[in-house]
Write a structure and sequence with these properties.
By secondary structure, the chain is of the alpha+beta class. It has seven helices and eight strands. A five-stranded mixed beta barrel has the order 1-2-4-7-6. Strands 5-8 form a two-stranded antiparallel ribbon.
Length: about 170
């Protein structure tokens, strides 16, 4: 009976309260970056690997189906697009904003070599990622609104994966 009570109490605790302690959030991260998927980076800063970095305010198709383990073609295209953006120099700097539930840094990242390209905005503009409204409209509202406008433009012009995602309805 006591065990059941403990389980019920633990299940009633919100997920945010159950998040593990990821440590102090870094101020700035900069180094060589590589695409893990369409919204996640691996970074080598100096001689150390940082925690994985999720691009703030966006979502991209999953690379692998969690049930089957098979690669998802849309996820492969999104990763390839992010990798193509990074190929111009591989150096980036990121401004961490939070930890996610898997202790990945959630950050706004820009390339160093190619005119300080905003990675999240570029992925959305190309139609290879979409805006996560629950995150994008927290904090810097202007940036979040710009992301949403960029997504609307990519969607209406059917850029990137929007050719596949947005199937016109028959009338």
């Amino acid at each position: 009976m006591r065990y059941l009570l403990v389980v019920l109490i633990l299940l009633s605790i919100p997920a945010a309260a159950q998040q593990r302690d990821c440590g102090k959030l870094p101020d700035i991260l900069d180094g060589q970056v590589y695409a893990i998927d369409g919204a996640t980076l691996a970074m080598i800063a100096g001689d150390k690997r940082t925690p994985d970095i999720r691009l703030w305010g966006i979502r991209a198709p999953v690379l692998r189906d969690r049930m089957t383990g098979l690669e998802n073609p849309a996820g492969m295209q999104a990763r390839e697009r992010l990798d193509r953006i990074l190929r111009t120099g591989r150096s980036a700097f990121c401004r961490p904003k939070a930890w996610d539930s898997e202790c990945r840094v959630v950050a706004d990242c820009q390339t160093v070599a190619s005119h300080n390209t905003d990675l999240g905005m570029s992925m959305v503009a190309g139609g290879f990622a979409y805006v996560d409204v629950s995150i994008a409209l927290r904090g810097d509202i202007t940036y979040g609104q710009n992301l949403l406008k960029t997504e609307r433009d990519a969607r209406s012009e059917r850029r990137g994966l929007w050719r596949l995602w947005d199937i016109p309805q028959e009338k």
